[in-house]
Protein backbone atom coordinates (compact mmCIF):
# COMPACT_ATOMS: atom_id res chain seq x y z
CA UNK A 1 0.00 0.00 0.00
CA UNK A 2 1.28 3.46 -0.84
CA UNK A 3 2.17 6.07 1.78
CA UNK A 4 0.27 9.18 2.70
CA UNK A 5 0.73 12.35 0.69
CA UNK A 6 -0.05 15.86 1.92
CA UNK A 7 -2.00 17.80 -0.68
CA UNK A 8 -1.11 21.47 -1.00
CA UNK A 9 -2.27 24.16 -3.42
CA UNK A 10 -2.11 27.94 -3.46
CA UNK A 11 -5.55 27.91 -5.12
CA UNK A 12 -7.04 27.29 -1.66
CA UNK A 13 -6.31 28.99 1.67
CA UNK A 14 -3.24 27.91 3.59
CA UNK A 15 -4.14 25.92 6.69
CA UNK A 16 -4.31 28.17 9.75
CA UNK A 17 -3.36 25.36 12.11
CA UNK A 18 -1.34 22.18 12.24
CA UNK A 19 -3.04 20.15 9.50
CA UNK A 20 -2.85 19.59 5.75
CA UNK A 21 -5.32 21.01 3.22
CA UNK A 22 -5.86 17.42 2.20
CA UNK A 23 -4.30 14.00 2.58
CA UNK A 24 -4.25 11.28 -0.04
CA UNK A 25 -3.44 7.65 0.63
CA UNK A 26 -3.89 5.41 -2.37
CA UNK A 27 -7.30 6.16 -3.90
CA UNK A 28 -8.62 7.94 -0.76
CA UNK A 29 -8.44 11.73 -0.58
CA UNK A 30 -9.68 13.54 2.52
CA UNK A 31 -10.06 17.32 2.25
CA UNK A 32 -9.82 19.17 5.57
CA UNK A 33 -12.67 21.40 6.61
CA UNK A 34 -12.68 24.55 4.52
CA UNK A 35 -14.33 27.88 5.18
CA UNK A 36 -15.10 31.07 3.29
CA UNK A 37 -11.52 32.26 2.94
CA UNK A 38 -10.05 33.96 -0.12
CA UNK A 39 -6.90 32.01 -1.04
CA UNK A 40 -5.11 35.13 -2.32
CA UNK A 41 -5.68 37.41 0.68
CA UNK A 42 -6.27 34.66 3.27
CA UNK A 43 -9.14 36.82 4.56
CA UNK A 44 -12.61 35.62 5.50
CA UNK A 45 -15.10 36.84 2.90
CA UNK A 46 -18.83 37.51 2.54
CA UNK A 47 -19.70 38.33 6.17
CA UNK A 48 -23.30 37.45 6.97
CA UNK A 49 -23.97 35.85 3.54
CA UNK A 50 -24.15 32.07 3.96
CA UNK A 51 -24.89 31.46 0.28
CA UNK A 52 -21.75 33.31 -0.88
CA UNK A 53 -19.72 31.72 1.94
CA UNK A 54 -20.89 28.26 0.83
CA UNK A 55 -19.81 28.90 -2.76
CA UNK A 56 -16.36 30.20 -1.70
CA UNK A 57 -15.94 27.21 0.60
CA UNK A 58 -16.82 24.75 -2.17
CA UNK A 59 -14.43 26.51 -4.57
CA UNK A 60 -11.66 25.95 -2.01
CA UNK A 61 -12.57 22.27 -1.75
CA UNK A 62 -12.61 21.89 -5.53
CA UNK A 63 -9.10 23.38 -5.76
CA UNK A 64 -7.76 20.93 -3.18
CA UNK A 65 -9.47 18.01 -4.90
CA UNK A 66 -7.86 19.03 -8.19
CA UNK A 67 -4.44 19.34 -6.54
CA UNK A 68 -4.91 15.78 -5.25
CA UNK A 69 -5.82 14.39 -8.66
CA UNK A 70 -9.58 14.30 -8.04
CA UNK A 71 -12.76 16.16 -8.96
CA UNK A 72 -16.26 16.51 -7.57
CA UNK A 73 -17.13 13.32 -9.47
CA UNK A 74 -14.82 11.48 -7.06
CA UNK A 75 -16.43 12.84 -3.88
CA UNK A 76 -18.43 10.22 -2.00
CA UNK A 77 -19.22 12.35 1.06
CA UNK A 78 -19.50 15.99 2.09
CA UNK A 79 -19.92 17.09 5.69
CA UNK A 80 -21.41 20.56 6.12
CA UNK A 81 -21.22 22.45 9.40
CA UNK A 82 -23.56 25.40 9.86
CA UNK A 83 -23.79 27.82 12.77
CA UNK A 84 -27.52 28.52 12.32
CA UNK A 85 -30.41 26.23 11.42
CA UNK A 86 -32.01 29.22 9.66
CA UNK A 87 -29.14 29.20 7.13
CA UNK A 88 -29.90 25.69 5.88
CA UNK A 89 -32.09 26.75 2.92
CA UNK A 90 -29.59 29.24 1.51
CA UNK A 91 -26.65 26.89 2.06
CA UNK A 92 -28.55 24.03 0.43
CA UNK A 93 -29.43 26.18 -2.59
CA UNK A 94 -25.81 27.26 -3.13
CA UNK A 95 -24.52 23.74 -2.48
CA UNK A 96 -27.04 22.26 -4.92
CA UNK A 97 -26.14 24.70 -7.69
CA UNK A 98 -22.40 24.19 -7.24
CA UNK A 99 -22.37 20.42 -6.88
CA UNK A 100 -25.00 19.68 -9.53
CA UNK A 101 -23.13 21.75 -12.11
CA UNK A 102 -19.85 19.91 -11.48
CA UNK A 103 -20.90 16.30 -10.90
CA UNK A 104 -21.18 14.92 -14.41
CA UNK A 105 -21.57 11.19 -13.71
CA UNK A 106 -25.13 11.53 -12.38
CA UNK A 107 -24.32 10.33 -8.84
CA UNK A 108 -24.45 13.12 -6.27
CA UNK A 109 -22.24 12.68 -3.19
CA UNK A 110 -23.66 11.70 0.18
CA UNK A 111 -23.94 14.53 2.69
CA UNK A 112 -24.37 15.18 6.37
CA UNK A 113 -25.27 18.61 7.76
CA UNK A 114 -24.51 19.47 11.38
CA UNK A 115 -25.42 22.61 13.32
CA UNK A 116 -22.57 23.68 15.59
CA UNK A 117 -20.21 26.44 16.65
CA UNK A 118 -17.26 27.13 14.34
CA UNK A 119 -13.71 28.32 15.12
CA UNK A 120 -14.19 31.87 13.81
CA UNK A 121 -17.17 34.11 14.49
CA UNK A 122 -17.35 35.24 10.85
CA UNK A 123 -17.64 31.63 9.63
CA UNK A 124 -21.23 30.66 8.94
CA UNK A 125 -20.25 27.43 7.17
CA UNK A 126 -17.44 24.88 7.04
CA UNK A 127 -17.33 21.88 4.69
CA UNK A 128 -15.04 18.88 4.31
CA UNK A 129 -14.97 16.19 1.63
CA UNK A 130 -14.00 12.57 1.19
CA UNK A 131 -13.11 11.41 -2.32
CA UNK A 132 -12.19 8.04 -3.78
CA UNK A 133 -10.15 8.36 -6.96
CA UNK A 134 -10.52 5.66 -9.62
UniProtKB/TrEMBL annotation:
Sequence segments annotated as region (Disordered): 1-20
InterPro entries on file: RutC-like_sf, YjgF/YER057c/UK114
Protein name per the record: Reactive intermediate/imine deaminase
GO molecular function: deaminase activity
Record-linked CDD domains: YjgF_YER057c_UK114_family (cd00448)
Pfam family, one: Ribonuc_L-PSP
GO CC annotation terms, alphabetical: cytosol
Amino acid sequence: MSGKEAIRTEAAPAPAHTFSQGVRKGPILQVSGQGPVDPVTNAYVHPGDVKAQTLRTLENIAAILEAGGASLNDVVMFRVYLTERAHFGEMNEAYGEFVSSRVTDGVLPSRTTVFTGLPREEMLVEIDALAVVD
